[in-house]
Amino acid sequence: MRNFISLIKWSFSTSDDKAIGILRILFAVSLIPNGIEKTIANVMPVLNDPICGPTTGFDAFFQCFTSGYHIPPFFAFMGIITQVLFSWTLLVGVFTRISAMLWFCIMLWLIPMEVHDYVSFIGYTGYKLLIAACAIFFMIKGSGKWSFDNLIYKKYLAISP
């Protein structure tokens, strides 16, 4: 039980550093379009995937990930949910370390799929490496100032043993 409480405290602990808060907000704003393209079904083809073609909406992305890229359904579902939901949790700064961990896992899964040619490495993989680096930063440092993690930690967890 004591280890579980320590884990909860660690997941919400952060500093009042404004730079971390600004980086978290900008990072989340750059990730939100990834989630939006997974949710706007039949509005316009947002992603022209080399394997699946023009793809929009949850069902199309799920089919693309499971059939085109041969990702197991559970991981495809978690990848889409992470991109849709956890971009917003990063923006408001709640469950930041968990969100960052999920984003990091997605990037670890996606980077090897795209390293096969130089053009892909420069474009998409460089972006994914940057996402992975920021995710590692937030797993270590927390969410910074202007976050719900900071409020929850200060109000409920900082003084308990």
Characterization of this structure:
- The protein has 161 residues and is mainly α.
- It contains 7 helices and 2 strands.
- The protein has a two-stranded antiparallel sheet with strand order 1-2.
- The longest helix has 24 residues.
- It is elongated.
- The two termini are 12 Å apart.
Q: How do the SSEs run, as a string of H and E? A: HHEEHHHHH
Strand order across the largest sheet: 1-2
Give the strand tally: 2
Classify the helix fraction into a percent range: over 70%
Mean pLDDT: 82
Q: Tell me the major beta sheet.
A: 2 strands, antiparallel
| Helix run count | 7
Report the radius of gyration as a whole number of Å. Answer: 17 Å
Beta fraction: under 5%
| Low-confidence residue ranges | none
Categorize the overall geometry. elongated
In short:
The protein is mainly alpha-helical.
Label this structure with key terms:
161 residues, mainly alpha, 73% helix, elongated
Walk me through the topology.
Blueprint (H helix, E strand, L loop, with lengths): L1 H11 L5 H22 L7 E3 L3 E3 L2 H11 L4 H20 L3 H19 L3 H24 L6 H10 L4
Antiparallel strand pairs: 1-2
